[in-house]
Amino acid sequence: MDTLDIEFPHSLEDIQLNLVGLFVIPTHLDQLMNLRNLSISGTTIKRAAIKFHTNSLETLNFSCNPIEEVLLLLPEGVTNLRSVTLSHNQILMISMECIGHNTKALNSNLYDLDEDQISSLISNFPKATQCLWDNEQNYPFRGENYLYSELGSEV
To answer: Which Pfam families match (predicted)?
Structure first.
C-alpha cells in the first residue's frame, strides 16, 4: 500500500496506523485540526516528514519502522507535543529541529523522548524534559530509565 486513500473526519483526535504497509505518511493527516495522538508503526516508511497546521498534537509514535530521516514542521508558538517515540528505526541523524523545535515553534511542553541515538540531544532538550530512555550502547547507565527534573538534574 503506497498511500492511504481514506479521508479521516476532521474531528478525529487519535490515529493508529500500525502494520498497514505504508510507504509514505498520508499527507492529509496534517489537516486534522484536533489530532492529539498519532501512531504510525510497523510500516516501510523511510522518511517521516509531515507539516502540521495546528498545535494540538500531544504524542507522536513513529516506532518500529525503517525510518532514516525525521522532519516535523510545526506551526509558530508553543506546541502541545509532549512525547515523541522514535525507537527501533534506522535514523541517521536527529536534532531538536528535526522534531519541530526551532525559533518559531517551541516544544517547551516536551517531556518524554524515546530515541536510540539520544546522546547528541541531551544538552539541547527543553528544561521540561523529564524522561530519557536509551539503549545500552550509548550510556554507562546501560538502558536504565532516568528521570530528570525541570532543572535538568538527575532524580
So the answer is: LRR_1
Distance (Å, whole) CA 58 – CA 6: 23
DSSP string, the chain: --S------TT--EEEEESS--SS--GGGGG-TT--EEEEESS--SEEEEE-SSS---EEE--SS---EEEEE--SEE----EEE--SS--S---TGGGT-SSSEE-TT--EEE-TT-TTTGGGS-TT--EEE--TTT-TTTT--EEB-TTS-B-
CB under 8 Å, gap of 24 or more: what pairs does 129-134 form? 133/87
pTM summary value:
0.68
The answer to the question of residue 2 being in a domain is: no
Q: Into how many domains does the chain fold?
A: 1
In a domain, 137, yes or no: no
Choose the most confident range, by mean pLDDT, from 1-10, 61-70, 116-125.
61-70
In a domain, 7, yes or no: no
Domain that includes residue 58, residue range: 14-123
> Model confidence over 65-102: pLDDT tens digits?
999 999 988 888 888 888 888 888 888 877 778 877 77
